[in-house]
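Put briefly, the fold is written as integer tokens. One such record reads:
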Amino acid sequence: MSPACHFADRLIDRVDATRSHLVVGLDPDLRELPSELLDGVTDLAAGAVAVEAFSTAVIDGVADLVPAVKPQSAFFEALGSAGVAALERVEAHARAAGLLVIEDAKRGDIGTTMAAYAAAALGRVRIGEDHELPVHDADAVTVSPYLGPESLAPMIAVARRFGKGLFVLVRTSNPASGELQDAPIGAPDGPPLHERVAAMVDALGEEGVGERGYSDVGAVTGLTYPEQAPALRALMPRSYLLVPGLGAQGGKPEDFALFLDDEGLGAVAAASRSIAGGWRRRTSGEPMFTAIREGAGQAARDTNAALTQALAAADRWRW
């Protein structure tokens, strides 16, 4: 596979081009959108129009500032078929703006069902004998590992065929995640379950390493548990880390350095509400869509600056 096609290589290229490790989450909850955007919204189709308009405005505000966006598919799926169609258009809009798209769907199943998830998110759906059509056409997707490594094989196969990637849930950012993910294996003092999953992720990525040294099989590791970052980085030296929890969830910029390698690569930090909610700083009389675009852009610049300061202090600023 050529470097231009390999997902991790493309991600690193975007990180270098923007000098940013920030991924902007798109979680368009109708309850959190500007009130004007909801005027006249009385059905699912109108709701889908609103979340699409909001999401594309956020994308326009951050397109030159960050390497990727992360649309959360649940907020679109909640609006029915119109919402799914909106998700496809939002992802196409992001790609057209030069951003990579990480579809946050947390898929997990086996056999043909996982293959269908893979075709929808990353690959192509076959129509007839020799005709294939893209569906969401995201650059990467989040997946759950808890049906075992064979459940991830169909997604990995599709990702490698089309130069895409996946991020496997290893240590998530939510407060109660440790009840399962930190559970010891084998004995009360045994290693935690998330370390077993991390070792599995590393093995699955062995055959998918690009020219920049990182695999197309990455991992989700929460910024809210920075004390576990060094062990996870060591267990997955060739996996790019998607690190959620920055901002509203309490993750700190200074802790992000722990997830990076010695060259200042290997991880991207995800923030959603703190960026997309930048419109709340709207000045009196400012047009709504201007507020959404400019608010998201300013929030992204502020977050990039905070990360830059933190990484420079930790000697992880690569530029």
